[in-house]
Amino acid sequence: EIVYLDGAFLPADQAKVSVFDRGFLFGDSVYEVIPFYQGVGFRLEEHLARLAHSLDALQIPHSDNLDEALNKLVAQNGGGNVSVYVQITRGNAGKRSHAVTADITPTVFACCQPIAPIYETGPEVIEGARVIVTDDLRWQRCDIKANGLLANILAMRQAHEAGAAEALLQKEGWINEGSSSNVFIVEQGHVITPPLHKGILSGTTRALVLELAQQHGVQVTESNISYERLIGADEVWITSSTRGVLPVTAVDEHPIAGGQKGPLWLQMFKLFTRYQQ
Ligand code: PDD
């Protein structure tokens, strides 16, 4: 396995990061997860734009020609269907100090891992997911794709203990998003997803679903979703770069869509799998 570190392409076991790296010491870093299908980045531009947003929010300098580096990394690993993980930390300051100095060079790391080719499969192989709802314990800047993921990990652990595939996170009475996905519901043919604010990540898959729905005359609204609305919905979906658009068939102990994959999900899945960027 070849990974990318600070301009070099090298075997994973030869890639080394300092113990004084602020990513390691403070979680002072941001990341992206970008799917590549048949070796080609899917909505790469949108992912890099979000990465720029995360970096700007933390005043970490951007790195040049990252798209070129990622394409090269995927090619060096044989192309195919992979998700590329990119992490940019504020860098190595040589000592542990909360204060940030201007002279640090960011650490840029990327690696690949195999991904299910969701865009090449038929809807029949997609299994509906069970999800749980739990408290959103995260901080107030979830629009930044930051590496401090403890609250997400605790929530996901809780989901797995309940035999569920995802935890939806609830704050002040609203279901915001999943631990690593965005959430959608369907009410009488109408698609609804929570509006963007600093409490959720601006999902690239979310944006594509909204784009496709609008193009194909499916009504969409960005609106807050309560627990009652969620469990009473005709359909529930979660979206992410690694899972695409996934139908949810149960929320906690409540079956959704009679425990089946819904018709609007099927329509969206087809639009998705036929989407050519
Ligand atoms: N997570 N919300 C959160 C909190 C996420 O972590 C993610 C993605 C999403 C969906 O965003 P997108 O559609 O751009 O993948 C929403 C990635 C996959 C991860 O952390 O592994």
Automatic annotation (TrEMBL):
Pathway: Cofactor biosynthesis; tetrahydrofolate biosynthesis; 4-aminobenzoate from chorismate: step 2/2
Reactions the enzyme catalyzes: 4-amino-4-deoxychorismate = 4-aminobenzoate + pyruvate + H(+)
Molecular-function GO terms, alphabetical: 4-amino-4-deoxychorismate lyase activity; transaminase activity
InterPro entries, alphabetized: Aminotrans_IV, Aminotransferase-like, BCAT-like_C, BCAT-like_N, Class-IV_PLP-Dep_Aminotrnsfr
Entry's EC annotation: 4.1.3.38
Keywords: Aminotransferase, Folate biosynthesis, Pyridoxal phosphate, Transferase
Cofactor(s) recorded in Swiss-Prot or TrEMBL: pyridoxal 5'-phosphate
Membrane-crossing residue ranges in chain numbering: none
Gene3D superfamilies, sorted: 3.30.470.10, D-amino Acid Aminotransferase, subunit A, domain 2 (3.20.10.10)
Any one Pfam family match given in the protein's UniProt record, by short name: Aminotran_4
Keyword tRNA-binding: no
Family as reported in the entry's similarity comment: Belongs to the class-IV pyridoxal-phosphate-dependent aminotransferase family.
Protein name: Aminodeoxychorismate lyase
Source organism of the structure: Neptunomonas marina
Source organism phylogeny: Bacteria, Pseudomonadati, Pseudomonadota, Gammaproteobacteria, Oceanospirillales
